[in-house]
Amino acid sequence: MKLKVLATVAALLLTSTPGMAQTPAGSAAAMDKLAFMHGVWVGPASGVNRDGSRYAVTQTERIGPLLGGEVLVIEGRGYNADGSTGFNAMGVVSWNEQEGRYEFRSWAQGQSGTFPFTLTENGYVWEIPAGPGVMRYTADVTTTTYHEVGEFVVPGQPGRPMFEMTLTRRGDTDWPASGAVQP
Predict the structure, then answer these.
(1) Is-contact 32 69, C-beta < 8 A?
(2) Which end of the chain offers a freer environment for a tag, N or C, measured as fewer CB atoms within 10 Å?
């Protein structure tokens, strides 16, 4: 009896695993729409710190697919004039097939969260709830330029600029998929 149960469980696992490993067609198509972001990007960025002081860095972004294209991984790193890292962030964009929308998981400066991510005609918009308003990041991306503006937006008031970067595409990258640990 135990042998029959084990054989049945094993058969179910063997037949269900390949189906679970496949990316749904809707997810693959949605993630393909983000290919315009892939690559290495470098350029100036500036903004306002929480204490109101201003900063300027050389911003780098490396962006590439992982998990067979199921997610888009983004690392943003800002370098101070002395070469030290002044800013470092990580983000993962994925497609939520059940809800029919993108999600952006972000980690930066001790904060993290999952936020809506919306494609626009020339880029994207994502927002972080911030008290009575939101921090809205709007990006326009071409084949050579990646321009993003972050502004604090309170309903009924004009947005207050908090961040801006204008990056130039340096080239392709096989990050993060390259360099996988081999057995």
Answers:
(1) yes
(2) C
Alpha-carbon gap, residue 7 to 37, rounded angstroms: 47
Model pTM score: 0.84
Are 34 and 146 a contacting pair, CB within 8 Å? no
d(CA 126, CA 109): 17
What's the count of helices (H) and strands (E) in the chain, helices before strands? 2, 10
Q: Do strands 85-96 and 101-108 pair parallel, antiparallel, or not at all (unpaired)?
A: antiparallel
Tell me the pLDDT of the chain (183 aa) as tens digits: 555 544 444 444 444 444 444 556 678 999 999 999 999 999 999 999 889 999 999 999 999 999 999 999 999 999 999 999 999 999 999 999 999 999 999 999 899 999 999 999 999 999 999 999 999 999 999 999 999 999 999 999 999 999 999 999 999 999 998 888 889
What is the DSSP secondary-structure string of 81-112? TTS-EEEEEEEEEEEETTTTEEEEEEEETTEE
Domain locations along the chain: 24-171
Type of residue numbered 176: P
Q: Which helix (H) or strand (E) holds 136?
A: strand 133-141
Specify whether domain 24-171 bears CATH 2.40.50.90: no
